[in-house]
Write a structure and sequence with these properties.
- The complex is a heterodimer of chains A (105) and B (288).
- Chain A is an alpha+beta fold and 105 residues long.
- Chain A has six helices and three strands.
- Chain A has one domain: Alpha-Beta Complex (Sufe protein. Chain: A), CATH 3.90.1010.
- In chain A, 52% of the residues lie in helices and 22% in strands.
- A three-stranded antiparallel beta sheet of chain A has the order 1-2-3, covered by helices on one side.
- The relative contact order of chain A is 0.22.
- With 288 residues, chain B is an alpha/beta fold.
- Chain B folds into two domains: 126 residues, Rhodanese-like domain (Oxidized Rhodanese, domain 1, 3-Layer(aba) Sandwich), CATH 3.40.250; 123 residues, Rhodanese-like domain (Oxidized Rhodanese, domain 1).
- In chain B, helix 6 links the parallel strand 4 and strand 5.
- The longest helix of chain B is centred in the last third of the chain and has 13 residues.
- Chain B starts with a helix and ends in a 10-residue tail after the last helix.
- About 2% of the residues of chain B have low confidence.
- Classes of the chains: A alpha+beta (105), B alpha/beta (288).
- Chains A and B meet through strand 1 and helix 1 of A and loops of B.
């Protein structure tokens, strides 16, 4: 799932593999962009891995909380850069769930 | 590179560029303020030229509500905080071939701060030469900076100016990539948020991607090389009334700098609404 663009400080592609049971079997990303977007993307991927978050739990993650954890003064008004990785990951999960259950919208 | 070598590049206003060597010799000069302005805003915090201050183009130079630059009072206050007085020579440098350095310099020019220069080669050249970098943030005594008059008309174009420019068949330079210029990029899957509903370019605009103005080491090409590109290929000539644009005016400020200072054109304006405005504007004519 690709995400990003010039206004977000970069672009990423998230690679997601599900285990069929709502859990994430494998997760990685590639991307290019500024320190905020790439650093934050790396941090969120690591957090999902370390906390063993399920797909539902990732979808529930709040952007504001995540930005506060990164540090408001560091991110400033570049919140789109900081949430690029997380928003693309959520899009990847939604797409995965949609494609696994074609009857559900 | 020495100042001599900048002279040899044959620019119209060679004093607008300084070498890394010159900056190294003026780190403690009270009359000089070195300003880092980057696209990747955290680079300064990771390490910067000693005594350089950061100007964050997004946070420091923009109006927080409306799409515009800060008002003159806030500009004066910002200058005061950074220890910049009207006589201070401000030297800009940054990442990505100095494209955000020229963007900040262009904004300073809106407020009439004309004593501005760019460090040729930018951040990457300073680092490549193994020159010192620090994380120490300097603090300078606040300077007196009277609230300036702001006059955008000399170097900034608004959409009405582009419309009359088209009516008068005056030259436009689109400095984006060929894919953005042709409108093709809007449809590529990796760019879901290119920022405009329509792709293409302003009718009649010549395409000169902004980075053609620089060499591999991020220094600017010589005047002859630049004339070959902007005049030989794009058809510009001295005396032309030129408007440059890109997506939000960041890359085109680099081209504005090249045409104005290096080639000596005296009627160049940056259309900072650029494609994010024109490509979303109802009934704005588009060419592909």
């Amino acid at each position: 799932m690709p995400g990003g663009g010039p206004e977000c400080g970069g672009s990423v592609v998230v690679y997601l593999k599900g285990d069929g049971d709502g859990r994430i079997a494998d997760l990685s990303f590639t991307g290019a962009g500024d320190t905020i977007s790439m650093g934050a993307a790396s941090i969120i991927m690591q957090k999902v891995h370390d906390d063993n978050l399920s797909m539902a739990e990732v979808l529930d993650l709040d952007y504001g909380t995540f930005v506060a954890e990164l540090g408001g003064e560091v991110v400033g008004s570049r919140t789109r850069n900081a949430t690029l990785g997380l928003s693309t990951l959520k899009s990847a999960i939604r797409r995965y769930l949609r494609e696994r259950r074609p009857d559900t919208r | 590179m020495s100042e001599q070598e900048i002279q040899e590049k044959g620019y119209a206003r060679p004093e607008a560029l300084v070498t890394t060597e010159w900056v190294a010799e003026h780190l403690d000069d009270q009359n000089v303020r070195i300003v880092e302005s980057d696209e990747d805003v955290l680079l300064y915090d990771i390490g910067h030229i000693p005594n350089a201050v950061k100007i964050d183009w997004v946070e420091d130079l923009n109006d927080p509500l409306m799409r515009d630059y800060l008002d003159p009072e806030k500009f004066a206050r910002l200058m005061s905080e950074k220890g910049i007085s009207p006589d201070t020579t401000v030297v800009f440098y940054g990442d990505r071939n100095n494209w955000w350095a020229t963007y900040a310099l262009w904004v300073f020019r809106l407020f009439g701060h004309d004593n501005v220069k760019v460090m040729d080669g930018g951040r990457v050249k300073w680092e490549a030469e193994g020159r010192p970098m620090t994380q120490d943030v300097p603090s300078f005594p606040s300077a007196d900076y009277p609230v300036p008059n702001r006059d955008d008309s000399r170097i900034r174009a608004f959409k009405e100016d582009v419309v009359s420019h088209l009516e008068n068949h005056n030259p436009l330079v689109d400095v984006r990539s060929p894919g953005e210029y042709s409108g093709e990029l809007l449809h590529m899957p990796d760019y879901p948020q290119e920022g405009a509903l329509r792709g293409g370019h302003i009718p009649g605009a010549a395409n000169v991607p902004w980075a053609r103005a620089v060499r591999e080491d991020a220094t600017f090409k010589s005047a002859d090389e630049l004339r070959e590109i902007y005049e030989g290929e794009a058809g510009l000539k001295d005396g032309d009334d030129v408007i440059a644009y890109c997506r939000i005016g960041e890359r085109s400020s680099h081209t504005w700098f090249v045409l104005t200072y290096l080639l000596g054109y005296d009627k160049v304006r940056n259309y900072d609404g650029s494609w994010t405005e024109w490509g979303n504007l109802v009934r704005a004519p588009i060419e592909r």
